Amino acid sequence: MPLRRRPDPNQGSGISIGGNNTAPIQNVVGQNISHTHQTSHLPPPTVTPETLQALLTTFRTTLTENEARLPHATALQALTDDIERTLTTPTPDSPRALQSALQALPALVTGTAVQQSGEALAQALAGWLG
Fold first, then answer.
1. How many CB atoms lie within 10 A of CB 62?
2. Which residues have a Cβ under 8 Å from the Cβ of 34 and sit 6 or more positions away?
3. Which residues contact 74 (CB under 8 A, 6 or more apart)?
4. How many CB atoms lie within 10 A of CB 31?
5. What is the pLDDT of residues 16-53, one digit of tens each?
6. SS3 for 26?
7. What are the angstrom distances between the C-alpha of 97 and each of 7, 71, 87?
8. 111: Cβ–Cβ under 8 A, 6 or more apart, which residues?
């Protein structure tokens, strides 16, 4: 029985057809695709003021329900008040205030009972700010 030579795993494209596979990768019509790069760009989800307000309300409700167990409950309440005030009465500094809230929120909610609603609010703020 003849011995078959195993393909060297370090050679070729990672697709084993037996032997050493060092030829360029081609698609089914024979076009060389070895140096092709594929990317995708999706538009960010649209965040409406209603969506942002609903997420803020959900976060505030979750915060109230879990207030006794949260180490930063007072800071989170102040943050939600600031977000609400900024959304209801915008000023020229509103984008900066929302950006500050966006930066602070994830660190304050990580590992807490309000993490899910806090992260959802942060993602919506990021989408709102673009």
1. 22
2. 24, 25
3. none
4. 9
5. 555 555 555 555 565 665 555 556 555 556 788 899 99
6. strand
7. 60, 23, 10
8. none
Residue with tokens 């959304």: 87
Q: Which residue type does 57 have?
A: T
* Residue 73 to residue 8: CA distance in whole angstroms: 59
Give the C-alpha distances (Å, rounded to integers) separating 92 from 9, 53, 84, 96, 98.
60, 20, 15, 9, 11
This prediction has a pTM of 0.64
- pLDDT digits over 52-90, tens only? 999 999 999 999 999 999 999 999 999 999 999 999 999
The two tokens of residue 45 are 């989800």
Three-state DSSP state, 25: coil
